[in-house]
Structure formats: C-alpha cells, structure tokens
C-alpha cells in the first residue's frame, strides 16, 4: 500500500487546473465568503477568472509558497489552500484555507490544514504555523480550536468591512474562546 502525503482522510490536495475556473468563478460571486477569507473585491469577468486559474496552474512549485486545489475523494473541487510569508530560516509560515459554501462542515478544511501542517512540519522542518482569522469568522475560529491551535494575540481594528472595524485573531488566540 502506498502513501501520498497530499491525501488525507477526506480530501486530497492537487495543483489548480485551468479547467477549475467555473467553480472558482461561482465561489467568487459569494460576497460573504469573500469577506470571511479576505475582502470584497470588485466583480471579475469569466475571462478574468479563467486567466487567474491559468496563472495559478502555471506558477510552478517552490515547495514553500503555493496555492493548491482541495478535492474530495469523489473528485469534486471543494476549495483551495495557500501558504505565504514562509520563513524557512525561522521555521514559520502562514496559510489560508477556503471551502466553497456547499461543502462547509464536512471536515474538508480540517483535513486540508492537517495535510499542510504534516508537509511543513515533517518534511520542511518548520516549527510554527500561523493563521490570521477575523474575529467575526466563527467557522474559522471553531476550525482552529478543533485543530488545537492556541490563541497568541489579537490585532485590534485591523480590518474594515460591512460598516465596522474588526480584530484579526492569530493562531494562538483560539483556545480562549
């Protein structure tokens, strides 16, 4: 029996393909998801989303900074996960995960994060994963509590959305909720 580090119990991670554009485009129309993930951007054309997926699929692999598609074991594209601000000297990195609405609460985000943590901790010798989470993103707070993350700090009034300022919670803060 073989082992694929990019497969978990319910998902596998794979490169983004140009053919994924329709699912990403549909997800991009959901303003609530955009707000939970990052920020609400202006509308993107279908051609713009095609170009984005093409650019993502052509980026290549540096082993540290990447965005991967999350696919369930039925072969459905269910979201994406990315890593950024990777500091191999100090062993720290950040990641973000986004699951398409129709696939929420099925364990896909948790499984995808565990795969990323396994790769960074066991293969690349990183020692700390950081997740920035908005204080209004209850789903992400619950996810990170479930994963055993600990609340480390809170960046006050860092994000303005939906008419008010919000805090960003860091990885280690989650245990106090």
TrEMBL record:
Q: Which InterPro entries match?
A: Acyl_CoA_acyltransferase (IPR016181), GNAT_dom (IPR000182)
Pfam families attached here? Acetyltransf_3
**Mind telling me which SUPFAM superfamilies this protein's record contains?**
Acyl-CoA N-acyltransferases (Nat) (SSF55729)
Q: What is the official name of this protein in its record?
A: GNAT family N-acetyltransferase
| Organism superkingdom | Bacteria
Q: Which residues does the UniProt record annotate as the domain N-acetyltransferase?
A: 11-172
Q: Which organism is it from?
A: Chengkuizengella axinellae
